[in-house]
Amino acid sequence: MSDAEVTVKSATRVNDELLSSLRPPTLAWYLLAFFLGVVVACGLAAFTWQMMNGMYVTGKNRPVMWGFYITGFVFWVGLSHSGTMVSSILRLSRANWRRPILRAAEAMTVFSITVAGLFPLIHLGRNWTFFYMIPYPNQRGLWPNFRSPLLWDMTAITAYIIGSSLFLYLGLLPDLAVVRDRTTGWRHKMYAVLAMGWRGSAHEWSVYHKASTLMAALIIPVAVSVHSIVAWDFAVTVVPGWHSTIFPPYFVIGAILSGVAAVITLMITIRKVFHLEDYLTPLHFDNMGKLLLVISLLWTYAYFVEVQITWYAHEPIEWEVFSFLSSRYTPQLLIMLVGNSLLPIIFLCFKKLRRSIGVMLVVSLWVNVAMFIERFLIIVPTLSHKNMPFAWGSYSPSLVETLVNLGALAGFVLLFILFAKFFPIVAISDVRELDVRKAEVPMGRTRVPSIAEKE
Amino acid sequence: MEKQTSPYKWGMVIDLDRCTGCGACVVACQAENNVGICEKKEISEGRNMHWLRIERFWLGEYPDVRVRFLPVMCQHCHDAPCEPVCPVYASYHNPDGLNGQVYVRCVGTRYCGNNCPYAVRVFNFYPHEWPKPLDNQLSPDVTVRSRGVMEKCSFCIQRIRRAKEEATAEGRLVRDGEVQPACAQTCPSEAMTFGNLADLRSRAARLARSPRRFHLLEHLGTHPSVIYLKGGGREHV
Question: What ipTM describes this predicted complex?
Answer without folding.
Answer: 0.90
